[in-house]
Amino acid sequence: MTGQLFTHYFLTEGIRETPEWRESVRTSAALAGFRTEAARRFASFSRFSNPNEAVTEEELIRPILRLLGWTDYLPQQEAARGEDVPDHLLFEDSGSKARAAERSIPDDRHLDALVVQESKRFGLPLDARDRSDRFVLGTPHGQILRYLATAYSVSDGRIGRGVLTNGRVWRLYDHQARPRASGYFEADLGAILEGGDEDDLRTFLLLFRREAFVLPKGARASFIDAAIAEGERYEESAAEDLSQVVFGDAFPRLLNALAAQAPEADLQEVRGAALIGSSGLMVEMA
Prior knowledge:
- The chain has helices spanning 8-12, 19-26, 29-45, 53-67, 94-101, 140-154, 189-195, 198-208, 223-261, 267-285, and strands at residues 73-75, 88-90, 115-119, 161-165, 169-174, 184-188.
- The chain is of the alpha+beta class.
- Strand 3 (115-119), helix 6 and strand 4 form a beta-alpha-beta unit.
């Protein structure tokens, strides 16, 4: 699992403290069912030789989306801006999908959606251009970033999340994540199923399922919102702790040591040397 949308702390520790994780452990049937059906889909898909994007989408990606709870989606077929139209808009429920379907202007359908989704042929690297498709000049990564920028703009900020996948590797994007180049979460679902790691599969299910993006009744944030915020709080806390260690402990001791070694030296020079040493210490500790 790669990318910087979520912190390492959240993915290895923080997520295990969430009510959603504990509930998933307590009622393990949903995870077991997802594992069984996803593995069956991969096994069935393996009969295709060199599957293209359409086959990958129909035989693997859409079935996995439905297993994740995304049963309400609209394929996007009208390309008002050339290639900058995602393959699907994913909706919270059938009502949202119905409202979107009634809109005559394609861009307006974003107003009812939760997520934009882009599919690629099985095995296509997500950071490299598909040279077999002469109509697409950029990379899948670049495409989803453009789709998100458009979706965020035309929906007045209502939709800012995107899913990019080649069926095996799945990425979750957030439009406001920085840096853009690595502001995503990536999981290799095929490898997770093959390896049998239950915690990795549980993490995948919790982060990609429809419920993760839906705002629960009475709540102020979705599971994804809370996950990103938790990571930011942890990073801020870690930075504060590191600053306290360096400037509350290491810096005074370094200053005293330098002053003791050169009692006749100018105090400003001693402080400057201590600051340089402390800065280097912070870099090493970070």
